[in-house]
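Researcher: Re-running this chain for the archive, since the previous output was lost when a drive failed. Same request as before.
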Amino acid sequence: MARANFVDYVKINLQSGNGGAGSKHFYRAKGIPKGGPDGGDGGRGGHIILRGNRNLWTLLQFKYKKHIRAGHGERGSENNRTGATGDDVVLDVPLGTIARDAETGEQLFEITRHDEERVIMEGGRGGLGNSHFKSSTNQSPDYAQPGEEGGEGWYILELKVLADVGLVGLPNVGKSTLLSVVTAAKPEIANYEFTTIVPNIGMVQYRDGKSFAMADIPGIIEDAHLGRGLGHRFLRHIERNATLLFCIPADADDIRGQYRILLNELRSYNPELLDKPRVLALTRADMVDEELKRLRKGEVPDDLPSLYVSAVTGEGITALKDLLYGLIIERRQDYDGVQYAMEEE
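Model: Regenerated structure tokens:
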């Protein structure tokens, strides 16, 4: 994904449609010079709707189109005919998009499923025609309701990348290289820090046609939760990954130290991130021999599964896929069980 084409935060102005006015018409026909009221209702103004689309990965389409307008409802007419409803505007957004009120910062909802639709701004209600106001004491009401005005305001769309596995690590530890080996993604790879400045997503092809999504999150540095480096801008993307794959070079001077830095940044940003399943991939395994692996065994954190992997030789890649897929399936089953229990209640 090109850097310039990845947009994960936009502020847009929305205006829903006005409702159409009700009609104050009286029935007239040959031989019936004084028919009763038959004014129809006005049509509803158009809604503005967000719809999830699993084929989108960015909010780029809103970068240059900041003002979005829905259609107005039409007036009611004679013979109790209701005016046409204003045209709705449906905005396709990537899964993981959060809608917020720009003024208050309140989160309105999050789009997490394909084809899920949520109304972000309702159109104005159409006015009632005069036929609604007829009564025994008022048989010829000469009035109808005007349509309600639609809404207008600024909203924020914020994308948090959804993936089954998120790669977490300091800059330049081999995350992009690993992603390029296990998926068809083509992230930029270079021997300097912050090569990755936008999330990259790829599909890992597993056995029997199964697959899962993996996201390479830009490198985290110490005090990222305070805004250093890329700071909060990309820490938030980790929140929507089901399983976290920590990447630390096998030849790092202090494996435990790097792991503690990463854990502290996640904990400081959002303690709930530590509740996610974690796996440690010791990358660049081709840089260390078996004897060094044995000598450094005590330096590897023992509170999570770990294995050596090499994008060059392929060491540990199959085992890593097996481990990750098992955790993903287990996580999905737990989630489905909770959902089922909630529905039963």
